[in-house]
Amino acid sequence: MKHDCRHKNFKIYYNEGLQRTHLLDILTLIIQNTMKNTEMAVALAAATCTNVQQIMVADTVFDQLPTIQLSRHFSLREFVISATAIRFGIDNTPPDEAVARLKVLCEKVLEPLRLRFGMLRITSGYRSPIVNEKVGGVATSQHTMGEAADIHVPNDEVGMKMYNYIRCNLDFDQLIYEYRSKTGARWMHVSYRADGNNRHEAWINASNASRRDRQRQ
What are the DSSP calls for 21-82, one per residue? Predict the structure, then answer.
């Protein structure tokens, strides 16, 4: 059965049998990749809904995303958008303390990294405790405090360059280059403690290998 789902100037037809999870992941990808396509992303989110109530929730995602600018090139929207939060109807709005920590993370790590490598795509930023539990994060995850971000890595060459640049040039708490050979997924986890007590721990965590480096003991 086909349904007509509208969001402003976008019109999408969908089948009830479509995988909602897949399209919600597309929503997250589009919003994190470019703000110009946010409205289309919200339309995609609405297209994954199976009833009127869910459509109403998805249709207001864009309006509910916070517009605070954390730094010159990063907004809070990039750090709070979450397919998991949308899927389960979870409020992923960070408290003021977490927003303040995200600002420091952007200023100390992400802005210098962007200056060196160009536009970055945040795949996971702030997570409320409930969202963190849903995605299988540890209870003490720095994502729940606004101290960490995961960054998309397009390939291993870029990943290693980013890893070594952060490790050798920037102040940070933890740096983990994650790679899954089975899926080909790569991402960089980096955190920064606003109190300045950073441990400078860095390691590569691949599905078939692990190497840990410690810097400035």
Answer: HHHHHHHHHHHHH-GGGHHHHHHHHHTT-SSHHHHHHHHTHHHHS---B-SSS-BHHHHH--
Q: What is the dihedral of CA 66, 69, 73, 74, to 10 degrees?
A: -40
- Helix 38-46 × helix 52-59 angle, to 10°: 170
Let me know: does 20 contact 59? Beta carbons within 8 Å: no
Is residue 49 within 8 A of residue 19, CB to CB? The reply is no
Evaluate if residue 198 carries a pLDDT over 60. Answer: yes
CA–CA distance, 176 with 188 (Å, rounded to integer): 6
The whole-angstrom distance between residue 82's C-alpha and the CA centroid of its chain comes to: 7
207 CA to centre of own chain: 21
Q: What is the pLDDT of residue 114?
A: 97
Can you say how many angstroms the Cα of residue 186 is from the centroid of all Cα atoms in its chain? 13
Tokens at residue 110, please?
A: 């992400």
pLDDT band of residue 182 (cuts 50, 70, 90) is confident
What's this model's pTM, rounded to 2 decimal places? 0.71
Q: Hey, is 37 helix, strand or coil? A: helix
Measured at the CA of 203, the angle between CA 197 and CA 207, to 5 degrees, comes to: 140
Place of tokens 């992941």: 25
**Mind listing the pLDDT tens digit for each residue in 61-76?**
555 677 789 999 999 9
